[in-house]
Write a structure and sequence with these properties.
The complex is a heterodimer of chains A (319) and B (896).
Chain A: H1 6-18, E1 20-23, E2 35-41, E3 53-58, E4 60-61, E5 75-82, E6 90-93, E7 95-99, E8 103-107, E9 117-125, E10 128-136, E11 143-147, E12 151-153, E13 161-173, E14 181-190, E15 194-197, H2 202-209, E16 214-217, E17 225-230, E18 238-250, E19 257-265, H3 267-282, E20 302-316
Parallel strand pairs in A: 2-20
Antiparallel strand pairs in A: 2-3, 3-8, 5-6, 5-9, 7-8, 9-10, 11-13, 12-13, 13-18, 14-15, 14-17, 14-19, 16-17, 19-20
Chain B: H1 9-14, H2 19-23, E1 26-35, H3 36-47, E2 50-52, E3 63-72, H4 73-80, E4 86-91, E5 94-99, E6 107-116, E7 127-129, E8 136-138, E9 144-151, E10 155-159, E11 166-169, E12 178-182, E13 193-194, H5 197-200, E14 209-213, H6 214-217, H7 229-233, E15 239-240, E16 250-251, E17 259-263, E18 266-267, E19 272-273, E20 278-279, E21 286-292, E22 306-312, E23 321-327, E24 330-340, E25 344-353, H8 355-369, E26 373-391, E27 395-413, E28 417-422, E29 428-456, E30 460-485, E31 490-517, E32 520-533, E33 536-544, E34 568-582, E35 587-600, E36 603-617, E37 622-633, E38 635-638, E39 649-652, E40 660-673, E41 677-694, E42 712-728, E43 733-748, E44 757-758, E45 765-774, E46 779-788, E47 792-793, E48 796-802, E49 812-817, E50 823-824, E51 828-840, E52 845-853, E53 861-868, E54 876-882, E55 887-895
Parallel strand pairs in B: 2-5, 6-12, 17-22
Antiparallel strand pairs in B: 1-3, 4-5, 6-9, 7-8, 7-10, 10-11, 13-14, 14-21, 15-16, 17-18, 19-20, 21-22, 23-24, 23-55, 24-25, 25-26, 26-27, 27-29, 28-29, 29-30, 30-31, 31-32, 31-33, 32-34, 34-35, 35-36, 36-37, 37-40, 38-39, 40-41, 41-42, 42-43, 43-44, 43-45, 45-46, 46-51, 47-50, 48-49, 51-52, 52-55, ...
Helix pairs in contact in B: 3-4
The chains are: A mainly beta (319), B mainly beta (896).
Chain lengths: 319, 896
């Protein structure tokens, strides 16, 4: 997303041409590094399937320009315990997997995320304080999805692209009288490549979901996409959402499926993404914008360990 | 009744010592069987102290005998007046005798206007006082005074800063609608004055109120020679700029938007040019300004922290005058004169920046150093125009107009570069790329006001103001990125974005001043404001891939006229009452109420806010004051940076966003010591509620007034501090010292994990010292030095990476920041010096000011940032960024 930073250009211009910079030593504590973990788990995650996957890295000084260090020699343990039952907990040490250059994670083989259980993550490493995090898989919230017939347009498109439109109507059955958090996503499946997220119409959804909703459409973001909202405006009721889905497809590509996915997420999940999105938008110059830390539920460390469940509605797509 | 004012003018002429020190001087004095009148005249002659009195108040049959040795003049005077009901008071280097109880004496009513004798300009805040007792009044912002219930006297005294104190003989048959003309002093007055000892004679609440005189502004070494109202305000304790002279007014820990800035009765929404270095107030057009950082009169409302009430010049109604000023930063011209002599005049002034003459060339050279083709330009101007005319003795009309505009433009074409990007199949494609940016910013204020002064009889002064105030902001940016791949494919990314914001106020108000007696006055009034907020945004962005041509001009990519301007309206009404009561000669009480009503769609809110102040004049030298007030603010500025950039948006209070409120209590004392030394000390405590901030990190989202509620959070704050101001005035040498010790913090449940944090501009220590020396009628010099604690910043200290679930996508980096505003920047300090030369000819007056801003080139940080270490490119380093280095200051004015 393009940020509105134009008003700062005036300032930046003056800074550029009239300012002077002087190196300074700041006395802040960046030597005691911590572990950072990233793990979203679900009985049917679109990327990780139904196992736990945990990325482990370490924090590094802001002055350090080296690439993030993903740790391969940590001891990662997941312990599961059934909610409300006095059953014995089960633990499993995760094994390290490295698929190609980009998919580095610890995975479970036996313990699989499921509703009704709580999970505790423990990551130990000789160079860092041990971190612990707890989460669970929220109950599934069902949705009904209706898509209108797709329309095509080549207007304002590059010659090889066609834009497709459909009107989506989604009914959310918010059956619980506690505050639930949701993450709504729309995916397009390219055979042989995988799932790609589709932008969601921001203004229309904000109007329907209320002031607390955060619609995240970060172009090219590896992490931030979808609509994050809670049921504050419709707690325990049926909520209907209507919005347009639109995407452009190259003439040589043939996606086969659209997936509308409603994730029921924990508050930790919700806050991590909403606040992470805000931080990604703010940049790292605190003089111009209000910066923020990202909430995390990792004791002694950073990152997120959060479960979710999803209800997926898959609709065939044909160009 | 015959009145004799013993002026002893010859003695007065030679009298140069400070009155306070003179009356405390020990003398020997002998009087044998003298009448009181003769004894006083003898004392005056021997001590060379001017003593003013009416012999009608002296007992004629009483004789006194005194043999005093090594007693002060004051003690001797007390002995002379023993067993009478006569008291004495030191005012403006003379002793005034007055009868303590005047309740049984016949009174008369005197009212009229105080004017400059040369120009006919009405004088604001002139003191009018009765020499026979301790009471008086002052002229209001239209130069009008009403002195009701004056014990039957033949004359009154009028004093005003920068003018000769004048005795005005009263013709009781014509004591109404007077025009009293004051003659300007030969020397200009001091730089910035707190309401001084002379004004304290009136025992009006002065704590937390300061006046910025027009002449004062010329004695501050401004950037590039530009004298500026805000720079003058920064000389006062409790008032600071954001950081090193930029970023607007921050008063007693208040936010930028908590200042009510008024120009000729109309509010101004963005009072700064550029990034807050210069205010929109052209000092050539400014007549006077008053700053209230506490003790707000009941007539003011709608903001929490301060009021800056600026009056522009009315125009000389006697003769034509004009002037030209040329500085390094701006050029100015002004013209004024009578339309109908004595009854109507005009004033017009224009100021433009000179930056556009050299900025494009400089920026192009600097850009070329980085192999970038482009330049930047910036320009601003201000136009002030005013006319006034009288109809009869009871009516006067003013029409004021202000228009200011800022334009910024930046164009940048990056050099071509080679790079590779994956296509959708993950194959890397290599090509040549080039990016270009064009940005423009335009903003400005337009303010028009119409005011009508009317006198109802001899007791009621009324002013009705109708105004329009408008602030516009428009930004536009175009980004083009062209990629020419080696395989023959062309890509174009074209993004155009516009953003617009507008605030418009339509307001009308009436203010009435009633004079019940010399010990009681009251004011009341009310008004209505309609706010129109019109923020909106529009974005057109497209990414075209594999196109046959990259000739951008041939493609239809222009942004549609799709600015989604959806105006919203809110209404605000207010009414107030204020009464000033002299409870005794020592105690003055001001009681006020300000009621305010707000309406936005279905939401409405009302409040009644008390204003109370009590002043106690313990002695001639010592006074105390205490006050309590409450304020409310329904309009809020959502600022991304706290430094007041023009893209910040004004938003209304709504059902979900409560109005901001403040409660302020302050106590103060003023000591008028020997040798014209005045010491003022104030302590204050302010509580702020429902303050508005962006949610952490949420400030970059495009906002409009319809959806802002979800982006903000509300919290509270406190500000407490001690302020010390010391003023030394003299014929040649004036000096001042100000120190503020303060602590300001904020607490929001949704920011900083709910923990309290220091306000960004919480400056613990602010110390200023300044002085002016007049060598002779032509030459003078000034010097100012400031030292203050650094501002607070939140900085990132660590980071960590998160991998993307998508194949081939880069990792995302998350930053770990220090606690909110936990990093305090190093202190600022700066020394400014200037020399002024004035040459007055028969027709022309020349003023030349040469100075140096930031003499020893102190690198005062305005923020810290990360940059790559030039010596070791794989590391980053923190650097402090400072903006205003040593800068020459030159200003030449010629006027006729």
């Amino acid at each position: 997303m393009l940020k509105l930073k134009l008003p700062y250009y005036l300032f930046i211009c003056m800074i550029t041409f009239y300012s002077c910079e002087k190196e300074i030593e700041l006395d802040f504590n960046d030597e005691n590094q911590s572990l950072a973990v990233y793990s979203l788990f679900s009985p049917n995650d679109i990327f990780t399937g139904n196992s736990f996957q945990v990325q482990v890295s370490s924090t590094q000084s802001i002055l350090d320009d080296s690439e993030s260090q993903y740790l391969e020699d940590a001891t990662v343990t997941i312990t599961s315990e059934q909610m409300g039952e006095s059953t014995q907990s089960i633990s499993e040490r995760l094994s390290f997997h490295k698929d190609g250059s980009n998919q580095i994670a610890y995975r479970t083989d036996n313990i699989l995320p499921q509703d009704g259980y709580t999970y505790e993550l423990k990551v130990e490493h000789e160079n860092f304080p041990t971190v612990i995090a707890k989460s669970f898989v929220p109950a599934v919230t069902e949705i009904e999805v209706e898509l209108s017939a797709f329309k095509k347009s080549k207007e304002n498109q590059a010659p090889d692209f066609t834009r497709y439109f459909t009107k989506a109507s989604i009914d959310i059955e918010d059956n619980f009288n506690t505050q639930n958090h949701y993450h709504l996503l729309v995916w397009l499946f390219y055979p042989g490549i995988g799932w790609y997220s589709v932008h969601i119409e921001e203004d229309v959804l904000t109007d329907q979901l209320g002031a607390d909703a955060t619609i995240i459409n970060v172009e090219n973001s590896p992490v931030f996409f979808g609509a994050h909202f809670n049921d504050k405006e419709f707690n325990g009721q049926k909520k209907e959402l209507n919005f347009d889905i639109a995407f452009s497809i190259h003439e040589e590509d043939f996606p086969t499926e659209i997936k509308v996915q409603l994730r029921s997420v924990s508050e930790d999940y919700h806050r991590y993404f909403v606040e992470g999105f805000r931080q990604s938008q703010a940049g790292n110059n605190p003089f111009f914008v209000q910066t923020n830390n990202i909430s995390n539920n990792i004791e002694n460390g950073y990152g997120v360990f959060a479960g979710y469940s999803s209800y997926d509605v898959e609709i065939p797509f044909r160009k | 009744m015959r009145l004799i004012i013993t002026a002893l003018s010859i003695l007065f002429f030679f009298y140069t010592a400070n009155g306070q020190s003179a009356i405390n001087k020990k003398i020997s004095y002998v009087a044998e069987e003298l009448s009181i009148e003769d004894a006083i005249i003898k004392l005056s002659a021997e001590t060379k102290i001017n003593i003013a009195f009416s012999n009608s108040i002296l007992p004629s049959d009483k004789l006194v005998s005194i043999d005093a040795e090594e007693q002060t003049v004051k003690q001797v005077l007390k002995s002379i007046l023993k067993d009478t009901n006569i008291s004495s008071k030191l005012v403006s280097n003379q002793v005034i005798l007055f009868r303590e109880n005047t309740s049984q004496i016949e009174t008369i009513n005197i009212n009229g206007y105080i004017e400059d004798t040369d120009t006919g300009e009405r004088l604001i805040g002139a003191n009018i006082y009765n020499p026979n007792n301790a009471y008086g009044t002052d002229s209001n912002e239209y130069g009008y005074f009403n002195f009701y219930g004056v014990p039957n006297v033949d004359s009154i005294f009028i004093s005003y800063l920068g003018y000769e104190t004048q005795k005005f003989l009263i013709n009781r048959a014509a004591s109404q609608d007077l025009i009293i003309k004051l003659v300007p002093s030969y020397f200009e007055e001091i730089v910035v004055t707190a309401d001084n000892a002379t004004e304290d004679f009136l025992r009006r609440p002065t704590s937390g109120v300061d006046r910025l005189d027009q002449t004062a502004l010329k004695n501050i070494t401004g950037i590039g020679g530009e004298s500026d109202l805000f720079q003058a305000a920064y000389q006062l304790s409790g008032i600071n700029s954001g950081a090193d002279g930029i970023g607007g007014l921050h008063v007693r820990g208040g936010n930028l938007d908590q200042n009510l800035i008024i120009l000729d009765g109309a509010p101004i929404y963005r009072p700064e040019h550029a990034i807050g270095i210069i205010s929109v107030f052209n000092t050539d057009a400014t007549r006077s300004a008053k700053v209230y950082k506490g003790n707000f009169p009941a007539k003011y409302g709608g903001r929490l922290s301060s009021v800056l009430d600026v009056q522009t010049k009315e125009g000389n109604n006697q003769k034509y005058q004009g002037g030209l000023t040329l500085g390094l930063l701006t050029a100015k011209a002004s013209l004024e004169g009578p339309i109908i002599k004595n009854n109507a005049s005009f004033f017009i002034s224009y100021r433009r920046s000179l930056t556009d003459l050299y900025l494009p060339k400089i920026t192009r050279i600097v850009a070329e150093r980085d192999s970038i083709d482009g330049f930047s330009n910036y320009f601003f101007h201000d136009l002030n125009a005013k006319t006034n005319f009288r109809i009869g003795k009871s009516d006067r009309f003013f029409l004021s107009y202000y228009e200011g505009k800022d334009d910024f433009f930046n164009e940048k074409q990056q050099p071509e570069f080679r790079d590779s990007f994956p296509n959708i199949n993950g194959e890397l494609l290599t090509g040549t790329f080039s990016d270009s940016n064009t940005e423009s910013l335009n903003w400005g204020n337009k303010v028009a006001s119409f005011r009508w002064n009317h006198l109802f009889g001899d007791r009621v002064f009324a002013n009705t103001t109708a105004y329009l105030s408008k602030f516009n902001f428009l930004s536009s940016t175009i980004f083009r990125s062209i990629g020419e791949y080696d395989i023959g494919r062309n890509d174009l990314v074209y993004v155009e974005r516009k953003f617009s914001s507008e605030v418009r106020d339509l307001g009308v108000r009436t203010d009435l001043e009633f004079l019940q007696s010399d010990r009681l006055n009251f004011k009341l009034g009310g008004g209505f404001i309609q706010h129109k907020l019109n923020p909106g945004s529009s974005q057109f962005g497209t990414k075209l891939e594999d196109i046959p041509s990259i000739d951008v001009d041939s493609l239809d990519l222009s942004i549609q006229d799709s600015l989604q301007l959806i105006p919203i309206y809110s209404n605000e009404a207010f009414a107030y009452y204020e009464s000033g009561i002299s409870l005794s000669r020592e105690l003055y009480l001001t009681l006020g109420l300000h009621a305010r009503y707000w309406e936005y769609e279905d939401y409405n809110h009302s409040s009644i806010l008390p204003r109370i102040s009590l002043d106690y004049q313990m002695s001639d030298a010592v006074s105390f004051s205490a006050s309590y007030l409450e304020m409310i603010q329904y309009m809020h500025l959502l600022t991304k940076s706290d430094i007041g950039l023009p893209g910040d948006i004004w938003v209304p209070s709504t059902e979900n966003v409560a109005p901001e409120t403040a409660r302020l209590v302050q106590i103060g004392t003023q000591l008028n010591l020997k040798k014209n030394l005045v010491i003022k000390a104030n302590a204050y405590y302010k509580e702020l509620d429902n303050l508005i901030e962006f949610l952490e990190g949420d400030s970059t989202n495009i906002l409009n007034a319809l959806n802002y509620e979800s982006k903000v959070t509300q919290g509270k704050g406190t500000s407490k501090g001690v302020e010390l101001d010391i003023y030394k005035t003299g014929d040649r040498f004036n000096a001042q010292l100000n120190y503020t010790l303060s602590k300001t913090d904020r607490q929001f449940d949704e920011i900083n994990n709910g923990q309290s944090f220091p306000y960004r501009f919480d400056l613990t220590h602010v110390f200023r010292v300044g002085g002016e020396y007049k060598f002779n009628n032509k030459w003078s010099a000034n010097i100012n030095w400031i030292y203050n604690s650094g501002i607070n910043l939140t900085i990132a200290t660590s980071k960590y990476g998160v991998q993307s679930p998508f194949i081939g996508a880069p990792p995302s980096t998350s930053f770990i920041f220090s606690k909110k505003n936990a990093q305090r920047l190093t202190p600022n300090q700066r020394l400014d010096i200037g020399v002024n030369y004035t040459l007055k000819g028969e027709k022309l007056k020349h003023d030349l000011t040469i100075g140096i801003y930031n003499v020893y080139n102190s690198t005062n940080p305005i923020y810290y940032k990360l940059r790559r270490d030039p010596a070791e490119r794989t590391k980053f380093q923190f650097v402090s960024v400072s903006l205003l280095p040593i800068t020459p200051s030159v200003r030449y004015s010629i006027s006729f």
